[in-house]
Amino acid sequence: METLKFTKAAILAITPNPAKRQEYADSVLPGLRLRVTSTGVKSFCVARYRENKFIRVTLGKFPDLTVDQAREMAARTLGEVATTRQNPNDQRQAEKNKSVTLATALAEYIKSRAHRIKQTTIYQYEGVLTNFSGDWLKTPLASIDRERVEARHKAITEGGVWFGDKPQRSGVATGSKAQADLWGRVLRAVCRYAHDHYRDVEGNRLLPDPPTTVLSTKRQWHGTTRKTTRIRNNQLARWLDAVDAVRNHAAETRDDFAVSVCDVVDVALFTGLRRSEVFGLEWDRVNMGGRYFWIDKTKNGDALELPITDTLAAIFRRRLALRRNNEPLVFSGYAGGVIQEPRRVLDLIMGATSVGGTEPPIRFTCHDARRTFGSVAELAGTGQYILKRLMNHRTMRSADVTQGYLNFSADELQEPAQKIERAFLEHAGRIEKAGGLDNQLLAVMGAMTDEDKRRMLFMILNNEDKEQKI
After folding, report:
1. Which burial class, exposed, middle or buried, applies to 341 when counting CB atoms under 10 A from its CB (0-12, 13-18, 19+)?
2. Same domain, 280 and 370
3. What is the DSSP string of 227-242?
4. Residue-wise DSSP of 292-337
5. pTM for this structure?
6. I need a labelling partner for 236 at 20 to 30 A (CA). Which of 68, 129, 264, 338 fits?
7. Handedness of CA 326, 331, 336, 338 (dihedral sign)
8. Would 341 be classed as within a structural domain?
9. What's the confidence (pLDDT) of residue 165?
């Protein structure tokens, strides 16, 4: 490193080296240096060893910063290092972290979980904070206090939407109790992450406690209840008949999209799979010979292997017969793509459940199939561990140690899956209920006199003797 007296003329005379970066030391003020990049950018900085640590602090670029200004700033910086024994860069970073904005904190939060959350979830986080607190995105987190959070949560509950500092009553996103709680949960997650993540060099937190705690301490959370809608057992016959009717009519009119949606609805009902899991199922994940299929992209990230029951096998064979040009998707939408919006077909099915207007239509959403599956499976006597596996509910976080040791393959799940399928078909009246004949016989015998019972018993025993002689 070359030493020279920094002057404007001397610095202007320095020719950049295209092969490497150069560095010069000022002969007037020890510690002041000039760095020259290969492209000719010249910057002043302070370089000093302190307690066996090398400290470099950038001051500014030349000629925006004059030599005299650079020496003044360098002297002040060197004095701070000598008196505080701290790295000025650390102090600058701490100040920067203290003023971190909501947008920056959100980006860091998403980055830290990029390997665990789906892109759709990221869009949801970004969307809810933008829709209901877009005016806060450039605001430092430290400035978002409890009062502001409480007021915003209340306003979203009442239907407020923000395009500035004041709530509006019209726009693309209308608030509600559910939206208010969703907004609060996303904001809470970001604030909690930022509160723990942003620290100084000594590990001390730089941000105040998350302001969203006010929603808990003042009991502002609405606690929106989980939906419980499903197809009742006494409605399964009407529902399955309606799906068949819409599918048959769609096949006659060559409405392949409607046929595909009807098959999706049946698969969702008989497996309890989530909407996206059925829509995204591809043929290379279906093993007809081995009687199993698997979902590799699930909500919780755990791959799921399921058995192919008789009902599912019939659906998959029908899909194979309708497959065109080696389409990768089992249930293809328009132009072979993923089904995006099945509402038109669902409306047709719901309309068909009214049975000519004699019954009210069965209202249905895609997730109702999952709730219906769980209810039927539980009533059929499926064990809770097997049911959790069939529905792909994560067990590793459970306090039940036994769950962590259970791992069922598709072959081992075949019998309970068939049991659940049978329960569906029995409720729908498509097969005879187990023990149905016994119950009918007991009912008939209950109305008989003792003399009639003796006569019937004599006839049965007499027929058995004749068969043995033959």
Report:
1. exposed
2. yes
3. P-----GGGHHHHHHH
4. EEEESS-TTS--EEEE--HHHHHHHHHHHHH--TT-SBSSB-GGG-
5. 0.64
6. 338
7. negative
8. yes
9. 46
The residue from 217, 245, 266 where one domain ends is 217
Helix (H, G, I), strand (E, B) or coil at 24: strand
- SS3 category, 35: strand
Q: Within a 10 A sphere around the Cβ of 65, how many other Cβ atoms?
A: 16
Strands 161-162 and 53-62: unpaired
Which one-letter amino acid corresponds to residue 181?
Answer: D
The verdict on 270 and 412 lying in the same domain is yes
Question: In the structure encoding, which two tokens stand for residue 199, read together?
Answer: 């620290």
pLDDT in tens, 446-458: 778 888 888 888 8
Helix axes 410-427, 310-322, angle to 10 degrees: 90
| Long-range contacts formed by 282-286: CB under 8 A, 24+ apart | 282/328, 282/329, 282/330, 283/323, 283/327, 283/328, 283/329, 283/330, 284/328, 286/316, 286/330
- DSSP code for 361: P
Structural domain that includes position 33: 2-86
* Whether 373 contacts 271, CB under 8 Å: yes
Mean per-residue pLDDT of the chain: 86
Domains: count for the chain: 4
- Output phi, psi for 406, to 5 deg: -100, 130
Q: Which helix (H) or strand (E) holds 289?
A: none
- Would you say how long the chain is, in residues? 470
Kind and range of the H or E run holding 159: none
Strand order across the 292-295 sheet: 286-287, 292-295, 304-307
Question: How far is residue 16's CA from residue 5's CA, in Å, rounded to a whole number?
Answer: 18
Same domain, 307 and 358: yes
Distance CA 98, CA 204 (A): 12
Res. 164: pLDDT tops 50:
no
Identify the pLDDT of residue 314.
96
Q: What are phi and psi of 34, to 5 degrees?
A: -125, 125
Q: Name, in order, each residue with C-beta under 8 angstroms of 335's C-beta and a sequence gap of 6 or more.
A: none
Sign of CA dihedral 373, 118, 105, 164: negative
Distance of CA 189 to the CA centre of its chain: 14
Written as one letter, the residue type at 390 is: L
Q: Is 323 exposed, middle or buried (0-12, 13-18, 19+ CB in 10 A)?
A: middle
Q: Are residues 398 and 459 in the same domain?
A: no
